[in-house]
Amino acid sequence: MTPGQRAEARIAELGITDPRDLDVALIAMDAGMEVVYENLQGCEATLVGVGNRAIATVRRSTVRGRERFSVGHELGHWDMHRGRAFRCRVDDPDQNWASDTLLEKEADTYASHLLMPTSMFNPRVKALGTPGFREIEDLSEVFATSVLATCMRVADINTLPVILACYNARGVLRWRKAAADVPPRWWLRQQLDDDSFAYELLHNGKSHPSPGKQPAEVWFENMDADEYEMSECCIPSRAGEIMVMLFLGPKMLDARYDPHVGNRKFNQHGPRVARK
Q1: What is the pLDDT of residue 2?
Q2: Is the N or C terminus of the chain more exposed, i.e. has fewer CB atoms within 10 Å?
Q3: Its pTM surpasses 0.85
Q4: Is the model's pLDDT at 145 over the cut of 70?
């Protein structure tokens, strides 16, 4: 089973069908993991287990969604990685997404499915159409999750042609996460374009939480990007960073393979890895 399947199987076994009943501490207790909250320094959570019992210590936070994700993350470790060594989670899930730590990414995936199960989450996303950050915030309140974790889950379920990206305070791409059906031929700019809403937010402080039309060339390096249209919305994140959601226009999903973009190793059939 995948991490997501394991998490959702646990929810199904407990018979939970309403987001309001997703009490992650009680779910953890049922799995043999007690949760305590303390003022930790230097990390978000730690896990100590002996036999079939464990204690997860989670940093207190004013953001309830952040605490809940930490509990789900540690439960993922307890459920999947028992007996293996791993470092405590340093911060929100984007820290793990920006890294290559497999166990941390698996635990994040587990937590995401635990807090936002497919059967409850997908119908609510479908009802939103093309959501902006205001709609995402409303959705995050339903599931008691952070906006970041909710955005990542929206990309994961692959029902919208969305790319989620984070740019640092210098306007440089930090990480990106695309829905599975977004064609790999679209090469995201590494530096914010002057004409993007995100650039305006970074330099003038003007948020653009609702999707607005943009020429695709504002966001993608492809030579033919000026022939396509898309939507962008953005909000400020922590430490001066910018969180962006990009929605590809319908024609962009049918665009032909572009061999002249970026340095990515892929062909018309998808990603490829060079032989050593």
Answers
A1: 96
A2: C
A3: yes
A4: yes
